[in-house]
Amino acid sequence: MNLNILATKQEVATVFSEYFAELVATNETLHIALSGGSTPKIVFDHLAETYTTAIDWSKVHLYWGDERCVPPEDDESNYKMTVTHLLQKVNIPEENIHRILGEENPTTEAIRYGKVLGSQLPLVANVPQFDLVILGMGDDGHTASIFPHEITLWDADDNCVVATHPDSGQQRVSITGKVINAAKEVAFLVTGTGKAPKVKAIVELGNETYPAALVAPISGQLHWFLDRDAASEIIS
Ligand code: 6PG
Predict the structure, then answer these.
(1) Residue nearest to atom 14 of ligand 1 (CA)
(2) Which of 9, 16, 38 to mutate to test the pocket of ligand 1 (most atoms within 8 A of CB)?
(3) Which among 73, 69, 24, 72 has a CA at the least distance from the CA of 47?
(4) Quick one: angle between helices 38-50 and 9-25, nearest 10?
(5) Closest among 96, 64, 91, 92 to 80, alpha carbons compared
């Protein structure tokens, strides 16, 4: 586990973007699963501001680790957030964008998207392998859209499942633990004091009642990009 603790959210965005740009530069094609959330938003803004030409976006295929079951123009949509903060600002071919169809029936879309991953990505032991999975972590220790109250979804046989937000009841399509842990690289983007107790519980104590604690890529390449606020309970 590689811990990167930076002073501010902006520095998290800067350092992660350097890591991301290096990954793109050293690969022919990259299949990357994106996350929603506030920290990815800051990262997307930085990538759009600083790496429009420094990254060859034609090498990058974008997918989502999870999506809310809403239409793509809905403010709740992770896809819409990515379009607003990144996709409309960089030159990435339309055919490289593989969004989860939030407007479709959740169950049929989870099956469809699972098949998309199975056909677009290389398979390792019959599991789709991303080059990079970007994850956030909720204040409750969820990641992607696997929430503590549905933690058994993590071990589903499927590539994708339908999850439900514990408070709003909003349905989500999410990739599962086997897909996350098959990735060559996994990067958590976690900032803010609200995350600090769970960062301690997960990073320091390995408390597996939280889905984010179950992220353990077989490749061993797990990176945490944290600001000092989120890391405040693990740094002495
Ligand atoms: C989502 C995200 C989710 C997010 C966490 C953290 O669809 O909401 O994929 O897993 O990463 O909720 O979000 P914040 O960084 O905004 O707290």
Answers:
(1) 37
(2) 38
(3) 24
(4) 60
(5) 64
Query: Tell me: the pLDDT tens digits for 131-156?
Result: 999 999 999 999 999 999 999 999 99
Joined tokens for residue 150 = 């549905």
pLDDT at 38: 94
Q: Determine contact, residues 6/227, Cβ cutoff 8 Å.
A: yes
Nearest by Cα to 137 from 48, 231, 62, 205? 231
**Cβ partners under 8 Å of residue 214, min gap 6:** 151, 154, 177, 181, 208
Q: Which residues line ligand 1 (CB under 6 A)?
A: 35-39, 66, 78, 136-138, 142-145
Amino acid 174 reads S
Length of the chain in terms of residues written: 236
224 C-alpha to ligand 1 centroid (Å): 15
Residue nearest to atom 13 of ligand 1 (CA): 37
**Residues 194-221: what's their mean pLDDT?**
96
d(CA 231, CA 166): 25
Return the pLDDT at 220: 84
Is-contact 195 137, C-beta < 8 A? yes
* Helix (H/G/I), strand (E/B), else coil: 58: helix
Mean pLDDT across the chain: 97
Q: Supply the DSSP string of 106-164, one letter for each residue.
A: HHHHHHHHHHHHHHHS-EETTEE--SEEEE---TTS-BTTB-GGGGGGGG-SSSEEEEE
pLDDT in tens, 15-34: 999 999 999 999 999 999 99
